[in-house]
Prior knowledge:
Elements: H1 5-26, H2 32-74, H3 79-88, H4 95-120, E1 126-135, E2 138-147, E3 153-161, E4 166-172, E5 176-178, E6 181-187, E7 192-201, E8 205-216, E9 222-226, E10 230-234, H5 247-256, E11 259-266, H6 273-284, E12 290-297, E13 302-310, E14 317-325, E15 330-337, H7 340-360, H8 373-378, H9 391-398
Antiparallel strand pairs: 1-2, 2-7, 3-6, 3-8, 4-7, 5-6, 8-9, 8-10, 11-15, 12-13, 13-14, 14-15
Helix pairs in contact: 1-2, 6-7
Amino acid sequence: MKFSPGKLLLFIFVMLLLIIIPYSIFGSGTNIAFNVAIITIFFFISWCLIASIDIIKSSSEVQNKSEPRKKAKFENKSLELLNPELQNNPNNINQSDQTEIFKLVEREEMGKNEFMEDIQRNIKIISITREYEFIGGQIRFKIGLENNTKYSVTSLKITLDLPKALKWILHEPDYERKSDIILIPKLGSREKITVSFYLEPINCVKSTINAIISFYDFKERPHALPMKPKTISITCPIFFTETQANFARVRNIHRKLPHHDRKIFPVIKEENSKAFFKSLLSVLNLYDIKLIRETYSDEDNFGEAWFYGITKVKKNQLVMYVLLDGKNRILEFEVSGTNEEQITAFLAEISNKIRMELLHRGLLTEDDQFYDLRVTILSNLCPYCYNSLSEKEVRDFQEERSLICPSCNVKLNI
């Protein structure tokens, strides 16, 4: 036991007090042996009193120091992390540890009960919204996910089920894609995200898009929620064009129309350029639309054609432009109008019919994809030889940098 100045003064004071008291009681006449015995007893009592104060103080300091360590031991830990420790070292659990563990159990049980109460009240863990719009000759299909709980969910997957008439080109944000599945690592508490899917119509279609959203909750339990099916309608326009129009009038209408979109097809072999051009014109002539102008140069391997049409029901005006650039091996088909859905639908219908016509004429084989150049390149394929393109080459194309297919040496710029 260490004597601080305060303790020393206290000891001297108590000793003096204990010496004075016996003399005042027994007087100075008592023998020396008795007085020594009395002083020794009181000295021992004083020493015990001061030692007890020191022990009580030390015990309090130890308890105060152990409290932060105990808190740190259990702070930010779940039962799932503690269980292995408790199983490996069961004898190291003292009474205070048990108290903290009971608090932890109570905390997790409260969280579990709140989570289950949300489910019992029919509060969905994740809300799913979906909608679509026409943009750039494609369909942008949006799926919104919102976490309604106080806990994060992890390992989310969006499994998309598309009709055959729609081709998935790309998606935003750039989550990892595996086949028809999008992988999202985490959705935080109350967090909301939207994933946009860009779909290329291959033909006119009225069908439903389905999806399954799967994930794990904060207790690592799996869940799977079906998205409410969404019907996609791409109705091909029916034409009934009685009005005659000259080239100047059609060009003027073309400039005033608000929406323009196009598809650019690959001419697989340059020697077939003119046949590709004539095949597309023959498909367009099957509709009740007017061919306004057609030009073609064998010397330049270059051709143009203009068509004008009016839809039967809504009387919407559409202008169609065909361009053949044989030297660059591309066949372009542009549609302009007032209704984006009609433009998207007509482009999809013509794309399908021109492919069938080229197959019929032996200008394509079943193995030839013959999709829009942009669609094929964004699918990591060369539209001419169908060999794979690297991610870097696709990025170069998206950023409008020069791109030449390393397999067939064809320039892939639009």
